[in-house]
Each structure stands twice: as structure tokens, then as C-alpha cells.
Amino acid sequence: MSMKRTNVYADPEDLAIIKEAAKRQGISEAEIIRQGIHLAAMAHRVWDEPLFSRTFEGPGRTPSKAEIRETVAGAVRGETDSGTAA
């Protein structure tokens, strides 16, 4: 991966924390700063489509605990009966 050099102003207290963390973790201060830049970039990224772009049909209400258990149990029985379970 190619890198591009840039200059930024940083709070001296933040730099001291980064220096201490780099020493403790055995990595360079630059690596910690690169990780921070990556996290900031991903936090502000605009995605091409929404995370939940599809809708699913359902009963229009939250299923009860008993309904969930029965659905899961039925799925497990179906797997066991068909011989696909380990």
C-alpha cells in the first residue's frame, strides 16, 4: 500500500498518550496515528446504499418467546430429520 505524507496539528497531551501507547505496544507512533486516521475515515464514509436496503415480510408484530422457541426447535428438528446435522 502506498502512503502519502501529510502534516497535522495535534494536542500535546494526545501526542504524549500516543507515545506512551506505542512504547507499551511495541509499535511506532505513526502506526497508531494511521490507525486513528483510518477509524476517522471509516466513521465519516458515505456508503452507496443503506445498510438495511431490503424489507422483509412478517406478521407485523414482535413474535413471542414461545413462537421463537418453536420456530428454532422446528428448524433443528428439520435439520436432524433430513440428516444434514453433524
Structure summarized in a few sentences:
The chain is built from 3 helices and no strands. With 86 residues, it is an all-alpha fold.
Spell out the blueprint of helices and strands.
Elements: H1 12-25, H2 29-43, H3 65-82
Helix pairs in contact: 1-2
Structure description:
This protein has 86 residues and is mainly α. 55% of the residues lie in helices and 0% in strands. It is built from three helices and no strands. α1 crosses α2 (29-43). The protein is elongated and about 60 Å long. The two termini are 42 Å apart. 0% of the residues are buried. The mean pLDDT is 87.
* Mean pLDDT figure: 87
User: What overall geometry do the principal axes of the alpha carbons give?
Assistant: elongated
Q: Assign a percent range to the helix content.
A: 40-55%
Radius of gyration: 25 Å
Number of beta strands: 0
Ranges where pLDDT stays below 50 over 5 or more residues in a row are: none
Question: What attributes does this structure have?
Answer:
86 residues; mainly alpha; 3 helices
